[in-house]
Amino acid sequence: MSTITLHDTHNNDHHDGHDHGHHKETFITKYIFSQDHKMIAKQFLITGIVMAVIAMGLSILFRLQLAWPDKSFPILETFLGKWAEGGRIKPDFYLALVTIHGTIMVFFVLTAGLSGTFSNLLIPLQLGVRDMASPFMNMLSYWLFFVACVIMMASFFIETGPASAGWTVYPPLSAIPKAISGSAMGMTLWLISMVLFVASQLMGGINYISTVLNMRTKGMDLWKMPLTIWAFFLTAILGVLSFPVLVAGVVLLIFDRSFGTSFYLSDIVMGTQVLPNEGGSPILWQHLFWFLGHPEVYIVIMPALGISSEVISVNSRKPIFGYHAMVYSLIGITVLSFIVWGHHMFVTGMNPLLGGVFMITTLIIAVPSAVKTFNYLATLWRGNIRFTPAMLCAIGMVSFFISGGLTGIFLGNASLDINLHDTYFVVAHFHLVMGSAAIFGMLAGVYHWFPKMFGRMMNAKLGYLHFWLTFICAYLVFFPLHFLGLDGVPRRYYAFTEFEFMQKWVTVNVFVTWAAIVAALAQVAFLFNFFYSIFKGKKATQNPWESNTLEWTTPVEHIHGNWPGEIPTVHRWPYDYSKPGAEEDFIPQTVPYSQTMHSNMPHDFEGNAESERIQREWDAANGIVREQH
Amino acid sequence: MVHTLKQEDVEHDLQSSTKAKKFVLWLFVVSSTIMFGGFTSYYIVFAASKGKGHGLVLPDMFTYSTLVLVLSSICLFFAARAVRQQNISAQRSLLWVTLALGLGFGYLQVDAWSALYQTGATLVNNNAAISVIYIVSGMHLLHIFAGVCFILNSLWGSYTKVPQENAVYRIEIASIFWHFIDILWIYLYVFLLLNS
Questions:
Q1: What is the ipTM of this complex?
Q2: Residue from the list B5, B35, B139 with its beta carbon closest to the beta carbon of A13
């Protein structure tokens, strides 16, 4: 297997010394079926961006319908044909748009696009590893993801259209092919795509965990890892523990759809026809789905939290506030996320006592989340802040995490949820806390590590334009939705204005749609900046942000194996910014304490008596008085 | 760009990468266990809410197949020992026996399905608990298929005379996986026996 490949690579390095990477690197092995984690990261990122643009386009389409339910847009018919006859989006297609928008955003953009990009890029680079545990599996992970994307998009080109049962694909709607047109072939493609997607995520996640646990460079113990790596590591653990349950649920759903079993089906009458299925329960799908589904939202947000920790610390020129607390809160979120899935099911007739249990576990998640929020703010407090585009996005991420997180406390209450369930309040909540926050974390990552990925800088001015437009518009889009929800407007309705008491909300919807259109246009600034800078951006220096972590010790030009010579050894934690007594305001992880005698602190030595003695002697010889060691 | 890598560093890299790859397999074992955990928890919640399980006397074929699978595991254990002792001929014959027993297991499982089918306990059933029997044994059979591939990989290694290190690696991978699917099947079978 790939052991041999690795071995050969190293032998090359050893013997001829000039030839890095594979001997015969063709276009195909370098750019397409690449096994280099840096290239795979870029593949994930660009695929993720393409999918994000598609999903954003879908959202604009259904926002048009929501804002102007009675107006005809002939141009839509030109593009969408029978899905928009007479220039109005059909109800079936509206449901498909909502479903595929959700699926793409949650799974393809914020799971694969986010974890896939940054775990692949940063785990080896920040831990001092030449490549992933299994580069071959890593490559397979990307290509399974790619095929999953293609299959999902292919469902737009079939007679009956894409899946339409919502991104949670609850049976019986999803289990009976004749239920709605989207439940036919489109649903089958959705399921196939998701199975491939899960396989891809498992391969990726398993690789990340194994690499983190087994392949760190010398000196890089777990407590010297950057918070990004902690976040990716715990995210991967979440994925490996929860995605298989989705597979179990999906397998049963496939059998219900295609073979006539009754896992989720019972007592169904279609028109005048009584279906033979009996004895199943659709609630069981919800249990299996949300056992994945809830950890999934943390799979989405935790990498964003990790990226923000790093970006905020670097650009505040301050150590991250409460490093250990940050790690423990991530672990807390990881553990708790497995015992809260019931809060999606409060109104399924759940035993109120059980609902109470799920309510308590859900509300406890507020604690680690608040710890993280306060630590971000404390890191920013009196920092020497550099407002780079990445920094702005990271701060934006914190903002959305707070404003969206607060409404989570409302929704986590079993009794309040009776009113709020399936209203726009829920839509507003998760688009802020999971959607916008995670996207801003991802954008922060893109702006921050773009020089590492492409060796060039992105344009800062365009970055500022992009940030402010997106930030403001995201609030303008999602904040008003809270009030619709509180008034009882249900989500996923094609034309809720048919109900008289909701008609007053049409004007708000017009406003929201305009804000969404401006936000979408703002992304052009990003897309142009991104693709233009890949080729024409300003050349990056080796360490443009004056950062401590290992990835900035690699050469700007990518080589297979990352470091030309020996892998650097790590001597200190990654957050020695603005240390009193140091010559510069950052000390990379590779600098030993023996080179920074002026700035060493008593706790740096972790109780190592010999080092403390040497420091004391040096202090005495140089006439420096410090607090007691 | 001239540089040198110390030989021990290269070896260290290599060792940690082999270790990491074995770890990858362990993680796969974990996630696969969780998937079957998903099926069995479906069963538990279903049985609890309906107040009934599959209510069948499971065909004897399942007992025979379990024995065959346990035997194959034992065989593989001795095969792994033969690899470490560099006893090629014992290794080959033991691996062939393991393979044959594995395929025999597959045959017996299909036989068990047809026995179930003939008693009227079909896959398409209004008692989803009975359908679960087919699902878990079927998904397990897919794992057997993967396990057979691992054993073939090890066998192939013994015929192409790969270096000892590599041979050990191959048999270790095969062993981890095969013993896992052995234990997994015992869990599933006992589960189905206890929750009838």
A1: 0.89
A2: B5
